[in-house]
């Protein structure tokens, strides 16, 4: 596994044992947000993905061939990636059955769910029987110290959000891509299961014991003296009752020089919590800035990244223009528009 603790670009190949080519498992996912792991891999590493496995009740799909485990193995697949993200990260009986089928077809299996593959004796037995490997993206092997808050060299940008599952990983990867395109040293620092599978390393921050979250952020974005940037993938939202804790720990441990706020216009409520509405953008951004100042007194906001996937082009452009007027910051969609003006703002504010 590439060591994301080093100041280098993320590797473009995964470890030989459980790595690509991938069969992306969608199971019986009910909506687009439920396949964010599969969709992220298909978008950022299309050269690794040769097919999708969908259940009979699966609603979303990818632009990939439909393949069974046997057909995927015959087509050259090495690993089936559980591309689903369900509430609680549980392995349902259907998923357990399909993992065993994949192992018996000769595929390794990689998972980013909270519940371990190794928690199911039938999966462990199938892996031992077939000689296949199980990879748990949320099983972290390194020892993490408690966060210290001490200043460290280097430039760091953290993505924050009005909600979870709103585009922080896409925004972070798009910023890294734009910086690298300009010849600026930059590293995407993954903190979630999908990002870890894309980058080949990182820290699964929501699987870290609470006292060590800020230390995990310090570990994944070490001091650097090359004038480059660490672009740290944010998690959750300070305004989400379920996930505010991990968001706060990342703010303190990242010690960001710059924040980018991620938002989806028109989202009716916090994901999974219909009784909680999304915060106002100005309130959300100022709250994140205030929390960041504990360990990074000079932090600045450099842009707003919008997820406009549910809008047509005209509406997307209009939404960005309205938010620019409201916030006084560049606003772009990382997929539709790229983030060149947000990167311009980061470089102008923080220097490079």
From TrEMBL:
Query: What organism, scientifically named, is this protein from?
Result: Banduia mediterranea
Pfam families noted in UniProt: DUF1611, DUF1611_N
**Could you name the domain of life of the organism this protein comes from?**
Bacteria
User: Which ranges carry the D-glutamate N-acetyltransferase-like C-terminal domain?
Assistant: 147-343
Could you identify this protein by its name?
Answer: N-acetyltransferase DgcN
Q: Which residues does the UniProt record annotate as the domain D-glutamate N-acetyltransferase-like N-terminal?
A: 62-139
């Amino acid at each position: 596994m590439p060591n994301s603790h080093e100041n280098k670009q993320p590797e473009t190949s995964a470890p030989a044992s459980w790595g690509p080519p991938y069969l992306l498992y969608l199971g019986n996912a009910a909506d687009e947000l439920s396949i964010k792991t599969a969709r992220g891999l298909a978008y950022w590493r299309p050269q690794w993905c040769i097919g999708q496995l969908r259940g009979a009740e699966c609603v979303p799909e990818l632009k990939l061939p439909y393949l069974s485990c046997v057909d995927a193995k015959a087509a050259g697949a090495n690993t089936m990636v559980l591309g689903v993200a369900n509430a609680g990260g549980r392995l349902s009986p259907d998923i357990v059955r399909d993992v065993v089928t994949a192992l018996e077809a000769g595929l390794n299996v990689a998972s980013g769910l909270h519940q371990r593959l190794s928690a199911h004796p039938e999966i462990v037995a199938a892996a031992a029987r077939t000689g296949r490997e199980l990879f748990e993206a949320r099983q972290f092997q390194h020892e993490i110290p408690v966060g210290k808050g001490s200043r460290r060299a280097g430039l760091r940008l953290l993505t924050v959000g009005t909600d979870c599952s709103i585009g922080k990983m896409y925004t972070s990867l798009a910023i890294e891509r734009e910086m690298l395109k300009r010849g600026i040293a930059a590293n995407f620092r993954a903190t979630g299961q999908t990002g870890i599978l894309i980058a080949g390393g990182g820290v699964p921050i929501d699987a870290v014991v609470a006292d060590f979250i800020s230390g995990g952020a310090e570990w994944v974005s070490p001091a650097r003296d090359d004038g480059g940037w660490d672009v740290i993938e944010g998690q959750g939202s300070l305004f989400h009752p379920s996930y505010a804790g991990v968001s706060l720990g990342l703010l303190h441990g990242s010690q960001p020089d710059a924040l980018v706020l991620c938002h989806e216009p028109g989202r009716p409520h916090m994901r999974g919590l219909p009784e909680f509405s999304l915060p106002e953008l100005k309130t959300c951004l100022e709250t994140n800035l205030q929390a960041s100042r504990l360990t990074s007194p000079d932090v600045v906001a450099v842009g707003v990244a919008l997820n406009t996937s549910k809008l047509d082009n005209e509406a997307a452009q209009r939404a960005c223009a309205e938010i620019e007027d409201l916030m006084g910051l560049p606003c772009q969609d990382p997929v539709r528009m790229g983030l060149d003006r947000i990167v311009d703002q980061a470089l102008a504010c923080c220097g490079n």
